[in-house]
Amino acid sequence: MKIQQEHVIESVANALQYISYYHSPDFIQAMAFAYKKETHSSAKNAIAQILINSKMAALGKRPLCQDTGIVNVFVEVGMDVTWEAELSLDEMINEGVRQAFTFEENPLRASIVKDPLFSRENTKDNTPAVIHSKVIKGDKVNFIVAAKGCGSENKAKFAILNPSASVSDWVLDMIPTMGAGWCPPGIIGIGVGGTAEKAMLMAKESLLDPIDIVEIAQKNNPTDIEQLRLDLLEKINNLGIGAQGLGGLTTVLDVKIKDYPTHAASQAVAMIPNCAATRHLHFSMDGSGVAQLPEVDMDIYPDLEMDYSKYTKVDLNTLTRDQMHDWNIGDTLLLTGTIITGRDAAHARLKHMLDAGEGLPKGADFDNKFIYYVGPVDAVGDEIIGPAGPTTATRMDRYTDMMFENTNILGMIGKAERGEQTVNSIKKHKASYLIAVGGAAYLISKSIKKARRIAFEEMGMEAIYEFEVENMPVTVAVDGDGNNIHNVFQELQTYS
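The chain above was modelled as a monomer; its predicted structure follows.
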């Protein structure tokens, strides 16, 4: 039988829709185990939010995370395969991506920009995908379709070590430098050997294997690589970074390692994390039609609900800096009132306007408000807004002083740690930095009761919004005295 063009396109589109709202069962089971054993209250709360969000996304068939990723496709083409197609395989895959990301019932956030050095113009449909193809024996085409958020992708590490150097030591040195922007708990993928590009490719491929570290731990005679995986899992988790960088017992759910023969004078090593929105699906096509995707057993999800008993309710519309002074790092808050959004491109454009003497855009009132670093998914049906989880706040550090000096904001909401200069600036202005849980985008969106674009509408997900929120869950990460919940990263980096 021939592989038909329309079947490839539909299969890829279906897979991308599927992974936008379904976690794989092995990930849910690993997260449920991490939740059960966690003793640190802030970390346990973060894991609970990720699991609750996952179930909500599965039921609502809406994205787990607002960053629906850059599409990675690994495809193996059997040597005996025949085709009925006018498009190349890459063109078929990209058409599947286009259809998935523009699907009216569940549009996915288009994040891909062309001309990366200069205009960085959004392609509007998340194409092109990053495609890796190989020819194998047989008469089938095997696909792995993955969507990789850049909070984790941006934390990729690479080095050429001396052959006598310890890969384990290098990994343990690198983990703290990744901060919390990759949204742990997740999976660490490691590639060792080959050449530079081969090591990076193996690290990425390793993330697509099932989570099986529990089974490995039960083996009587693990291989050398399996033992290294176990050792690294224990040592990484003992660093105390924990869920969302809040401390606790579980930073990684599994450590994956692939290796390949290499030059005697070289030891290439790459490391890439997968975040709490781990998304990939494996399927094969034999010419019989569109690929059949796995049925989802909703019973795999633990029975969890948000526990708001330890949260403090905050009225943002009457909040003062004096009231904020009572907040301490680790405090959990429920925010109700008005917040303003803005992320990378919006901040850059604000800087350009201020530098040009144009002032702030009309209608964008930042005074006495928090700015939320978010690029939401578009709403569908009767939604107020689509999934709207935080983006990595560290990227906005360069604009923090500008915002404090020109807008009178009370503080910021994002995810992950802030740099030392930014923490000092927060202290100077008696402000606060709050974190929302990365990986809880759909859950967070339900606390947004009104949303309107108030500036830079043509910039799509980079536009500035005004949100009216009700009981939006956050944690104090940097308080008005400059205390920083993420100090563990600075301490670990100094130690290493």
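The longest helix spans residues 41-60.
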